[in-house]
Specification:
three-stranded parallel sheet, 8 strands, 14 helices, alpha/beta
Length: 372
């Protein structure tokens, strides 16, 4: 495949020196996340702090990967021009004093590819390479973007992001008609303001929403979204599974509990209780649930009972993966979380991504049992 080499495994969390210290609990956390934090946190997550174009390792058998690096590096360089007057910025820059004019054609790049080919690595590298202050560029998942609109309101979100030079949207998916209309309107307004766009997804922009709602009824909005982007296809296999050992089998409840008690900053929860708790916490707060955690320990992992619960778990898996929080579990292995109907349905790409990421985090957690 190709894509970046896996990030170095985080250092093993510190073992507790005092026996019997109760571990933390995700179910006891109900974080409040103010809107200004949502905006301030629109930067690449910790896992991608240090990635750059030159740390991406293209697969020589997949020329699309090298091509993507070249195109994105040129795209970033083109964002370095001074902004125009009037609050609008052209993608390739307008000289000061010239009348702002929105260029014709695509205003962004769209990275399409399978799981684990390094799309987020490339998107974060684009953010880092863009010659602008961090406050002038934003990076977030599609879910985080829609959550921002929910927190600020549509007009305030437009005003907040219109001053940016670049908006990077990871894991772009349309799950319902409301999102389609909302994001189409938002991105249209941002493009008019001169904001450049970049996005990643496992679905071509013209195919967004298929299998999840009557996409044909919203064809105009979907086509409008597609018109904002030039698509770059990135081929390859999931680097998280390339040349790596298989995910460790689940441990016993006793092993997981002992490891949680022996690991400073670890949480311990029964998996069914965690699923119930996620229903009471807005997904925009799932990142805050993981604040300061060194590991997540779960007992009794079992199949997710319904699609709403499954989609919430996908968001949590993304936030834990972003923050490189190891996950140690008992019960069923993570590849049995989602039933065949889910894996064959419209959200299958989300579920496969969650399985891939939780598997990687389970590998990272293997040393906790030894420590326990």
């Amino acid at each position: 495949m190709s894509s970046p080499s896996p990030a170095p495994r985080p250092a093993a969390p510190e073992s507790r020196s005092i026996a019997g210290v109760a571990p933390l609990s995700l179910c006891a956390r109900e974080p409040h996340v103010p809107a200004d934090r949502l905006v301030a946190e629109m930067v690449p997550p910790p896992r991608f702090d240090s990635v750059r174009f030159d740390t991406y390792v293209p697969d020589p058998n997949q020329p699309s990967q090298s091509e993507a690096v070249t195109v994105l590096a040129g795209f970033a360089a083109g964002l370095g021009a001074a902004p125009a007057t009037g609050g609008r910025r052209g993608l390739f820059g307008l000289g000061r004093g010239k009348a702002p004019k929105t260029p014709a054609g695509p205003r962004g790049v769209y990275l399409d590819g399978g799981y684990g080919v390094g799309k987020t690595h490339l998107l974060a590298s684009l953010w880092h390479a863009t010659p602008a202050e961090p406050a002038a560029k934003a990076f977030g998942t599609f879910v985080e973007l829609t959550n921002l609109v929910g927190a600020l309101g549509f007009q305030q979100t437009v005003r907040t992001l219109s001053g940016h030079r670049l908006l990077c949207i990871d894991e772009f998916e349309l799950d319902d008609p409301g999102d389609t209309v909302l994001v189409s309107s938002l991105l249209g307004r941002l493009v008019e303001a001169g904001v450049a766009l970049a996005a990643t997804s496992n679905t071509l922009p013209g195919k967004l929403g298929e299998g999840r709602f009557a996409a044909a009824d919203f064809l105009r909005e979907i086509q409008g979204l597609s018109a904002h982007f030039k698509t770059l296809r990135i081929d390859g296999e999931d680097y998280r599974h390339r040349g790596l050992p298989e995910a460790p089998a689940p441990y016993s409840d006793e092993q997981v509990t002992r490891a949680a008690q022996a690991t400073a900053g670890a949480s311990l929860d029964a998996f069914p209780d965690l699923l119930d708790h996620l229903a009471r916490v807005h997904p925009s707060r799932y990142g805050a649930l993981a604040d300061d955690l060194t590991a997540v320990c779960l007992t009794g992992v079992r199949p997710v009972p319904d699609q709403s619960t499954a989609l919430r778990l996908v968001v949590l898996a993304d936030r834990l993966y972003d923050r490189e929080v190891p996950v140690l579990a008992s019960g069923l292995p993570f590849d049995r979380l989602f039933g065949e109907d889910m894996l064959n349905g419209g959200y299958r790409k989300k579920y496969f991504r969650a399985i891939s990421r939780l598997t990687a985090l389970a590998r990272d957690a293997a040393g906790l049992v030894q420590a326990g």
